[in-house]
Amino acid sequence: MSISGTIKKIFRHTETGLFNNPKTQDDSPPKINTLFDPINNVNHTSYTIHDNTGHNKGTGTSIILKQKFLITYQSKTSTFKGRLLTIDLFFRQKQILRITSTYLPASNSNKNDSIKITEQCVLHLNEILNTSHNYHHIILGDFNVQDHSQPSDNTNDPPNKEASIQHPKKRLTKNTFISTLKNHNLIDIHKTLSDSPSSTFRKSNSNNSTTLSTRIDYIFTSNNLSDYILDSDNIELPPTEFDTDHNLLILTLDNDCFNFSPTSATKILSNKKDFIDYKKLSKEDWSLYSESIEQFIDHNWQLSIINTNSS
């Protein structure tokens, strides 16, 4: 089982082994699960949405919404062959978050039509991105490939099925899937935050000694979400608790991104600007200003990177 990704109590996991079931309907209710927390003596309710439309056991992906109120914002769900599960969440101020849980085929051979399925996933990804220009995107999961892709122009990555007919000889691979994300200006979170991101997958031999360690799990987000990223992590799960050869990838976003609180919504609606008369500032004011700027940079990783590169 592959596990990766969490954002404000939204989880997703892949290779569920659920397949060959009727297509999930947009209005079908999620599965409700209750887990008792003995430490706090409370029950936690979660809602699981499955893509079980694959045709073999090596398919299936799910998204779990841990907090009940998030269900209120779910407006649409779409599935694709147990490989791409997409949900749309509508928040205040017309903020739309589209989350796509991805599980690309592990094999590069024609077994179980892996090559054909991969090409179909690339085309479907283009449809997802090209029909939602004003959305916030988070596309994450087990891509089953190391990233050797490079951004290219639109002629190399067909934006839709019609365009693919004009390039019948081009093979669409799992690296094409990643380059498609880059061409739509999505960013690889862990690679952005680290020059050498850690491996996410390990394969052991019969003696339980590690023989392979690589990065095949990813979290990509729209550029417009970068200002709201609070933290990310890559955690190796203890084998005593989890039966998985994948790490847990974590992404934490600020609530202000989706205007959960009335306070943040009010700020956006008022559009009020504060002006400072710099001529009236004292030395103490300037000192306090400098300290505040340094603290702000320390707590915003994008500015920290820029500051480091420029020094």
TrEMBL record:
The lineage of its organism: Eukaryota, Fungi, Fungi incertae sedis, Mucoromycota, Glomeromycotina. It comes from Glomus cerebriforme. GO terms for molecular function: catalytic activity. Residues 46-225 form the Endonuclease/exonuclease/phosphatase domain. SUPFAM superfamilies: DNase I-like (SSF56219). Residues 146-169 are annotated as: Disordered. Residues 146-158 have a biased composition (Polar residues). This is Endonuclease/exonuclease/phosphatase domain-containing protein. It holds the Pfam family Exo_endo_phos. InterPro entries: Endo/exonu/phosph_ase_sf, Endo/exonuclease/phosphatase.
